[in-house]
Amino acid sequence: QVQLVESGGGLVQAGSSLRLSCVASGRTFSRYAMGWFRQAPGKEREFVASISGSGTSTTYADSVKGRFTISRDNPKNTVYLQMNSLKPEDTAVYYCAAGLRSTWFAPGPTSRDSYDYWGQGTQVTVSS
């Protein structure tokens, strides 16, 4: 069982930056690919970014590529999402997810169904 706790959300103006953090419980953090998803009101939860257990492979949604950076610190059981140049359309609840992979080099998946554990979410609101 893995528990995930996100933090770092808030209300910011367009063009600002935020860094989200997600801390995982357990001693096998590096076996899990980690992902960030977001859900805006009235919309489905969508993929934002993912990272392999080793941290060497990252994947991004086209909508955030070049603005967001996912990273992880395995000794601290933490994954981060650095969000720069925020836009009003980035407003959503952001969720962290963990998916057990067969190898720690395996890329993080983009599908929600590939993740085993989810955090409770943190709200990000970007005003224009």
- Total helices: the number is 0
Distance, first to last CA = 40 Å
- List segments where confidence is low: pLDDT < 50 over at least 5 consecutive residues: none
Instruction: Please give the number of β-strands.
Output: 11
- Mean pLDDT over the full residue set: 96
State the helicity in percent bands.
under 10%
The biggest sheet amounts to:
7 strands, mixed
Shape: globular
Order of helices and strands: EEEEEEEEEEE
Give the class from helix and strand content and strand pairing: mainly beta
What percent of residues are in strands? over 45%
The whole-angstrom Rg is 14 Å
3D structure, described in words:
The chain has 128 residues and is mostly beta strands. The protein contains no helices and 11 strands. Strands 2, 4, 5, 6, 9, 10 and 11 form a 7-stranded mixed sheet that branches. A 4-stranded antiparallel sheet has the order 1-3-8-7, with no helix packed on it. The termini are far apart. The relative contact order is 0.32.
Q: What are the main properties of this structure?
A:
single chain, 128 residues, mainly beta, seven-stranded mixed sheet, four-stranded antiparallel sheet, globular
Task: Sum this structure up briefly.
The chain is mostly beta strands. The chain has no helices and eleven strands. The strands form two sheets. Strands 2, 4, 5, 6, 9, 10 and 11 form a seven-stranded mixed sheet that branches. Strands 1-3-8-7 form a four-stranded antiparallel sheet, with no helix packed on it.
Question: Could you give the topology of this structure?
Answer:
Elements: E1 4-7, E2 10-13, E3 18-24, E4 32-39, E5 46-51, E6 58-60, E7 68-73, E8 78-83, E9 92-100, E10 117-118, E11 122-127
Parallel strand pairs: 2-11
Antiparallel strand pairs: 1-3, 3-8, 4-5, 4-9, 5-6, 7-8, 9-10, 9-11
